[in-house]
Design a protein that fits this description.
The longest helix has 19 residues. The chain contains eleven helices and 36 strands. An eight-stranded mixed β-sheet has the order 29-30-32-31-33-34-35-36, sandwiched between helices. A five-stranded mixed β-sheet has the order 1-28-27-26-25, with helices on one face. Strands 2-3-4-5 form a four-stranded antiparallel β-sheet, with no helix packed on it. The chain is of the alpha+beta class. Among the domains are: 92 residues; 83 residues, no CATH class; 262 residues, Rossmann fold (3-Layer(aba) Sandwich), CATH 3.40.50. It is 17% helix and 38% strand.
């Protein structure tokens, strides 16, 4: 494989390389988030994030190496995804951000624009001329240039029946072709564009998932499966080329998520691949814009790994990925985009110790061309090293964790920052660059990110062990990680603090309450201090489905919620507290910080306070993150830094 380095226009944006990494370097948003090549290979569409947090679009003519159009949105509006609907026209889904720590919320608006920036039009949503309902694309119809299939719903009528429509991407006109068989449901089409599977959630029946199926567009819909909120389920991804079988992720036969094939006529499932410890994800081959075949599985435990199936019919695409992975042995390689004939692939290569790099792969000439680095100022040789470890909980569970250690220092008797993730159920910490961890490690701290029980990705049983245990056994798993590093001689037990965001902020407070002699300080960033308040404030309970989920996670028993709320247990607290929040946080409103501050003041307990206007659930503005890190580092240095040690 030949490798060529191109001097793309993007490289002009890289700027001078600093001799060392600054807080501003870590806070600076990635230059490029996603790159999509047009079907004929004429253009690249690249998304970037502004310093205000909005995602905007650049379109580049590959031959002339020039940016030919830029598209951005104002206020809370931002770009969620970009896709080429044909060789000249892009479809953009709009989202609204609620904070840097949460997935943006889709607005249901689809915006279309030509590559050169002309013929811009809002196709769906309340600001469109024709289709006023919220919509999402369910089939890009690669063989058609002017139409895609969408599924629409009426936001003002909760529980309305979704409709499948053909959308003209030039003028926004629609024509209904199918109606969902149940309320508030999504739809999946086969390779001919016929809606044949529907998946919905019955919010009035404890979030029961319902899957319905029909043999063809003339047949009646039948209920195929019902899955309880705590049960295993099959989540369909796509029909296979035969239009008979469906590939999906399933934990009906395995504890972890497996790749399965379902025959909807019988409901029978066949497990293609699974891992006993972690969920797996399917890898597909692509042909003429369609998913063609499942060619393997990827997963991450102690490292990122891939398994390729030996019995695939066409191994061409599989061979591409395997050869590219061999070219980047220590990185995760993902093909993000391809021309219609697969002659050019866009791929990313990244790791926990290397920012994402984008490449073009010419499959005809077996030629790999460097395109750009998403964050070129983050020099890998200057980054602290991150790796995975496994330790045992006090009741015998294997706990997967990510550890980041200071560069150039012996891993012995280091001060430690425990860094639990948010969520907590569903998310997990992966082997990827975490700016918080890298910043703290660069300033001399070991950083541990534990995937405590309740984290996603390690099976249904492990996930559900966290239910009702936010402030008990989940916290114990974190403590056991600290003790493991102490036993290994890596960490000085007398110099341990904890910091987290969202649930991680809650966990920081509860860890300091539960282990008052272990933690010398705690930082809560947009964290909850009172679990009872979650039922009164915040957007989680705005829907019945969200309320059902919250009740499953933490329950309704007030005595339990009080026992697991830091604000009800402050008399046990010894550690100084640093409270950080945003005034526009909708997920964890500011009142969670304010009531904690007030109670600490009543007790004359030492605390620090940082609240930023116009920030939500997490900070977007680089200058706010720089200030946050500056004050956090001073806080940690005060209590467990070298000066404190001496």
């Amino acid at each position: 494989m030949r490798v060529i380095l191109f001097s793309w226009l993007f490289l002009a944006f890289f700027g001078a390389q600093a001799a060392e990494l600054t807080l501003e370097d870590y806070a600076r948003p990635s230059q490029f988030l996603d790159i999509e090549i047009s079907p004929t290979g004429k253009y690249l569409a690249a998304t970037s994030r502004s310093e205000e947090g909005n995602v905007y679009l650049n379109v580049i003519d590959i031959k002339s190496n020039k940016i030919i159009s830029v598209r951005n949105f104002t206020g809370r509006d931002s770009i969620g995804s970009i896709n080429w609907a044909n060789s000249e026209r892009l479809l953009i889904t709009l989202v609204r951000d609620i904070g840097a720590l949460e997935q943006p919320v889709g607005t249901g608006e689809i915006f279309a624009v030509d590559a050169d920036g002309s013929n811009a039009r809002m196709l769906t949503g309340y600001r469109s001329e024709n289709e006023k309902d919220a919509a999402q694309v369910i089939n890009y119809l690669p063989e058609e240039d002017k139409f895609v299939l969408i599924v629409t719903s009426t936001p003002s009528r909760r529980g309305s029946f979704s409709l499948v429509k053909r959308l003209n991407i030039e003028n926004g006109r629609t024509r209904q072709i199918a109606r969902a068989p149940m309320r508030s449901s999504g739809m999946i089409t086969d390779n001919d564009g016929v809606a044949r599977m529907s998946i919905g959630v019955d919010q009035e029946n404890d979030n029961e998932m319902i899957m319905m199926y029909r043999k063809d567009e003339k047949s009646d819909w039948q209920t195929l499966r019902r899955y309880g909120q705590r049960d295993g389920s099959f989540t369909p991804i796509a029909f296979l080329p035969d239009n008979k079988r469906v590939v999906g992720l399933s934990d009906t036969k395995t504890d972890t998520k497996a790749i399965s094939i379902m025959d909807p006529e019988t409901g029978n499932e066949q497990v293609l691949a699974h891992h006993p410890k972690v969920d797996v994800a399917p890898m597909f081959s692509i042909e003429a814009g369609f998913l063609k075949e499942v060619i393997g599985a990827s997963y991450e435990y102690d490292k990122h790994e891939e398994v390729f199936f030996a019995d695939v019919k066409d191994k061409t695409f599989s061979n591409y990925i395997q050869s590219l992975q061999a070219a980047f042995p220590d990185k995760k390689v993902t093909i993000s985009s391809a021309t219609r004939d697969n002659s050019i692939l866009v791929l990313t290569a990244r790791s926990a110790n290397h920012p994402p790099e984008f490449y073009l792969f010419d499959t005809k000439n077996n030629q790999l061309s460097f395109l750009l680095n998403g964050r070129p100022w983050l020099k890998p040789e200057l980054l602290a090293e991150t790796k995975a470890i496994i330790y045992k909980s006090r009741d015998g569970l294997d706990i997967h964790a990510i550890i980041t250690l200071p560069k150039g220092q012996e891993a012995k008797n280091l001060p430690l920052i425990m860094l639990p993730h948010g969520g907590p159920h569903g998310p997990r910490d992966l082997l990827e660059i975490n700016p918080d961890a890298k910043v703290l490690a660069q300033h001399g701290y070991a950083v541990l990110q534990p995937n405590f029980r309740g984290s996603g990705g390690f099976g249904r049983e492990f996930l559900q062990m966290g239910y009702l245990n936010w402030g008990t056994s989940m916290i114990d798993d974190m403590t056991d990680g600290v003790l493991h590093l102490v036993e290994q001689g890596i960490v000085d037990k007398s110099r341990v603090c904890i910091y987290g965001a969202s649930y991680g902020g809650y966990a920081a407070l509860m860890s300091a309450v539960r282990e008052p002699d272990l933690y010398k300080c705690a930082v809560s960033f947009v964290g909850m201090s009172d679990l009872n308040l979650m039922y009164e404030y915040g957007d989680t309970t705005e829907s019945q489905g969200g309320l059902n989920t919250l009740e499953m996670y933490i329950g309704r028993d007030k005595a339990r919620l009080d026992a697991q709320s830091a604000i009800k247990n402050l008399d046990k607290l010894k550690a100084p507290i640093f409270i950080i929040h945003g005034t526009e946080d909708q997920r964890v409103p500011l009142i969670q910080a304010e009531v904690l501050r007030d109670e600490l003041e009543k007790r004359n307990h030492p605390y620090e306070w940082l609240v930023k206007e116009k920030e939500g659930h997490g900070f977007y503005k680089p200058e706010n993150n720089v200030e946050r890190w500056q004050k956090m580092l001073a806080f940690f240095d005060k209590y467990i830094g070298e000066t404190e040690k001496n």
